[in-house]
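DM from R.C. (forwarded with permission)

"hey, sorry to bug you on a friday — could you get me a structure for this? deadline for the figure draft is monday and I only need the backbone to look sensible"
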Amino acid sequence: MRPLGWDNHVRYGQKKLGEMLLDASLIDEGQLKTALSKQQRSSKKLGEILVNLGYTNEELVLNLLGKQLNSPYIRIDKTEQIDNTIIHRIPENLAERNLILPVKLEDDTLWVAMSDPANQFLKKVLALLTGYHIKSYIASPKELKQAIARYYSREGRFEKAADNAPLHSYFLPLKQLGLTPRQLQVFDKYLEIQKGCLLIIGLENSGKKTTAYASLRQLNFPDNDIVSIERKMDYKLECVNQLEISGTSDQDMSRMIDNVNQFNPNVLAVENIQGVESWNGIGRMAEKGNLVIGTINTDQDIVDFLADFLNKRTNHYSVIENLTLLAQQKLVRAVCPYCRSPYKITGKTARKMGLSVKGATINIYKGKGCSVCNYTGYYGQTACYELLPVNNTIKDLMMQNASKAKFKKAIQKEMACSFNDILQEKLLKGQISTEDFLQVMGQDINQFKELKAVQIMDTFWTLFEKSGSINAYLEYRKKN
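My reply, with the result:
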């Protein structure tokens, strides 16, 4: 979709943009002629060219178009914080695709900032979706993109919502959580089977519940009866029967699982499985041929988790028999895509970091800092996964209480991309920083003089820009 106000081929009434600007005396004939001539040799829009030439500015253009369309011009970056309950009246994917943002609610009318208020079809869709009358503002496409990024931050999907979080009829799909294409294919395969135990392990607050929700979203179609047992109901999911446990003991969880088992749902999701009784209840559910999606808080990796599974977690062998897929998950800060910039490091340093690269130099990325990321250089978080399809060989090892060495050898053959592979891919694509890559891989940045020099220069410029002198930087160097 073309942003409003930039295209000379878009007509309002019977006038083109250029004619409207002439009539309003915002440009003269000579300026229009020059801009049209440049446009013939460029892929840029007329309005953008006029602004770049300094003949007018975006605010004047949008003010004029807003009056023509009965859609007042609004500066999104000057607007007061918009309430979350208003933002979520419109799904993120619809807002991003159409450059729209809900701004305020007045009785039965929802005011929406739009890049193209002339799009009457979109307004009808919004009215049907929200149940409100729709009135529009006109806003800068650039400001809308930045505001959508702020208000629909990916980081929010990996954090707990407020107690009064609204009903979410949508949620981030699995393909947007950080899985590689190959991993997504594997994950989808085991969801589609729709039986057995699919377990998601990781540290607390590592985004496991978000992954479970995304899985339920994918399975949420009319023929499926889905139940989710949760320690705390952070989000309300449409068409999912969500149950919140009143107690904290393993007996409370086990009792809830057994009660749900009587109704025999197609899909059961269980948050933070802990004791033996809960695991045994899950085993009884899985042996019926239903799908159980469970999350487990643990600092263990996949090898350690499986090696002591029989000792710590269950004496009900149907859990192991029905185990289909084990996913371990970590969260890593994401480099801000709005201020991401490349810098070169030598291939020697890259290979010392463990990167599988060739060549004398490679590009690594960092965020310079901008208004979208609050000048941190980071924007939200991205999930990294290890996926292990659990075959009969691994199940046999679990039954035998085999050694970690045997598990490690068997797991290496079946693993669908290791953390090392995933982190390398995200680093080279500019999605994560060198600092975070090294931290997750257990390496110290001080081992790499070249990287440390870049970090020191970044610190210098940050402190210099804040203080206007080098004194703050000199103090920093004394301490470090």
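R.C.: lifesaver. The chain has four domains: 11-68, 76-152, 174-332+381-430, 445-479.
me: no worries. Residues 1-14, 155-170 have pLDDT under 50 and may be disordered.
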